[in-house]
Amino acid sequence: MDMSRRARSTSSKQTSTSSDASEIPLLPTKADNNNNNNFVADERPPIPRQSISQRALESTAHLANLLPTGTLLAFQLLIPIFTNNGSCDTATRPMTFILLALLAFSCFLACFTDSFKAPDGQIYYGLATFKGLWIFDYQAASISGVPSDLNRYRAGFIDFVHAVLSVLVFVAVALRDKNVVSCFYPTPDHETKQVLDVVPIGIGVICSLLFVVFPTRRHGIGFPVTPDRR
């Protein structure tokens, strides 16, 4: 009888020990961690790349960023004064037209400006020509250190494309200004109003798309610093 009771108690202890051991969670091994990490990494959705049209539409929403800062600031400050807040007469209308022509030429010329960083950290600006970069302050730049090869800064086809596009973008911004429209078209008819509403948007979309297709590496006067500049 004692032997059978001892055997039963021993078997019950073994059963309870095995059940308790089965309830203890197993720690993950290093291989399991690697597999889980790979599985999580594989589950991450790929980052979608922006298409050209999407980037163009984003650029259209920020048309003013495609223009030189100084030209845009002069436009915003001077147009209300020259147009008398949209109430032009025979004297202010030609003056406003001359101002818009000068600002458009400023946009065209600014696309041919570029800069370089001297060894001492100073930035110098110049005008890109067919022979190279014509430095504005050459005497100070020669003291700081002028790049040996200025021919790589010479003007090319992309510069003319950007200059024309910059002028068109400025025209689009000017046509969206209420003072300019009121000055040249005080009482537009229905067709003229439709043209003034559609043409600036079309110019903005097309120019923004071409700006994306034909990028430039120049860092000229009034333009923001680009990450792929020289």
TrEMBL record:
Residues 1-45 are annotated as: Disordered. The chain crosses the membrane at residues 63-82, 94-112, 157-175, 195-214. It comes from Datura stramonium. Residues 9-22 have a biased composition (Low complexity). This is Protein dmp3. InterPro entries: DMP. It is a multi-pass membrane protein. It holds the Pfam family DUF679. Its main location: membrane. Keywords: Membrane, Transmembrane, Transmembrane helix. Belongs to the plant DMP1 protein family. It is found in: Membrane.
